[in-house]
Amino acid sequence: MGAMLADFPGVVRLAVTVTPTATPAADVDHILGQTYLPTREDLLRLAVAVLIVLVFYFAARLVRALARKELLRVKADPQVTLLVSRVTFLAGILLGFIAAFSVLFGSPTLVFGGFGFLALAFSLAFQDILKNFIAGMFLLVERPFRIGDEITVDNHTGVVENIEMRTTTLRTSDGEQVLTPNSLVYTGTIINRTRYPTRLFTLTAKVPAGVVPDGLVEQVEGQLRSRPDIVKDPPPHVGLQPSVDGGLTLEVRYWLDYRRNDPLVVQASVARQIYQAIQSPTEPTSTGPSRKAAGT
Questions:
Q1: Cβ-count burial 258-282 (b if 16+ within 10 Å, e if not)
Q2: SS3 158
Q3: What pLDDT is stored for residue 180 in this prediction?
Q4: Is the full-model pTM beyond 0.70?
Q5: Can you give the residue ranges of every domain in the chain?
Q6: CA distance 281 to 16
Q7: What is the pLDDT of residues 16-32, one digit of tens each?
Q8: Which CATH architecture has domain 145-192?
């Protein structure tokens, strides 16, 4: 073919140079060697970034401990102490990661943009955890109840022991621990049984058929008014209510300062007084004029 082209005038002779084809393995080695293998400078930046995260972590723990100690010294509210210490620690950790990624990537703008995408992905993947965390922060800020209050939420009644990142811890009267998600506590109905210093207690007792109820109400009410542990205002109330079977039921209502007195102890003592009054009722005193004896 080359000889034939050479015989025709005006035909340019072409020289074809065949380049050997590179193998896929060689391409991978070339790409990895020039693009993906970290250099000594990259490893140094990575070490500095890890060191920055560790420094900010221990600094955040130190600041949290100092803030908690100072708040305890001034006798701040336990929920305020918990909120301040938690926010301080999380802010220190967040600043540490921002500084570390800024050193690692060399561009704060790129870091903040990446944090936006990271926050979006995190909120979609862990929306339940994030929802409970935010609800816990709002519970600490709004304080519908305090640590140590007795509340009823989601058909569970107990004393609030702690408001954690994800759950609110309750201790029931039976000694059981109830962990309720913060989002359920925040959006549900809360009954705070210890919000006010006094609480109404009610006792009922069936009056036996052979007992005369005259003077029973006055006797029990007088005994309750003389007790120093029962609130005088509003005063205790004692009354007789008809039962379904045709008998009578003695109903006793009284207000008690539960923060100074044990409700169970007072309830047992009042029940004992009611039982003794029913078993041995006091004869009512006559207020009418006395009659003279005949023959005088």
A1: beeeeeeebeeebeeebeebbeebe
A2: strand
A3: 92
A4: no
A5: 40-125, 145-192, 198-279
A6: 129
A7: 444 455 454 445 444 44
A8: Roll (2.30)
Strand stretches in 13-148, DSSP E: none
Query: How many Cβ atoms sit within 10 Å of the Cβ of residue 58?
Result: 12
Q: Which fold has domain 40-125?
A: Helix Hairpins (1.10.287)
pLDDT digits (tens, 9 = 90+) for 172-190: 988 899 999 999 999 989 9
Main-chain phi, psi angles of 173, to 5 degrees? -70, -20
> Six-digit token pair at 81?
């102490």
CATH tag, 198-279 = 3.30.70.100
User: pLDDT tens for residues 106-136?
Assistant: 777 777 677 776 767 766 767 788 888 889 8
Q: Which amino acid is at 148?
A: G
Place of tokens 């995190």: 122
Angle in degrees, CA 111, 58, 86, rounded to 5: 80
Reading the block at residue 182, the tokens are 């913060």
